[in-house]
Design goal:
The protein has about 160 residues and is mostly helical. The chain has helices spanning about 5-25, 45-60, 65-80, 85-105, 130-150. The protein starts with a helix and ends in a 13-residue tail after the last helix. It comes from Neobacillus ginsengisoli.
Amino acid sequence: MNKGVYLALFSIGLAQGMKIPIHYYKKKEWRPDLFFETGGMPSSHSAGVSTLTTYIALRQGLPTFDFALSLIYGLIVMYDAQGIRRQTGELTLKVNTMNDLMEKIRKEETVEFKQNAPKRLKEMLGHRPEEVVGGALIGVLIGIAGHMFTKKDRNWWNFKLRF
């Protein structure tokens, strides 16, 4: 595998790992299972595609096909993460609320009604815009650091972005 893939996977893992202490700070609740869940701050989707795009920009230059492909792919992923997937999560919240309401109505009935309770749908699917930006910032920083640490000449302060 190439270094860009390693860096992108690293930033995805880092973003997922950061969700645990951030959640603890906000809610005072320790939830290590958040590492394996989607949604939340920061967006690992944004972190991964931003790392790869930044790394390609610094290594190959901006006018390359690789950079163009990575940039467009990354923008689509980030738009989807905070757009369509977020709306799906909002809809899921409403469905779960309706299910709770139906359960209350059913308990007040005198007629016996037997139904298997459906599993509660996962509500945290997508990202708010600030979560996407947070992931993108992490990704850009990891992409820059990855490029600097993998350069052959190690002249870190003299990197050139080719236009």
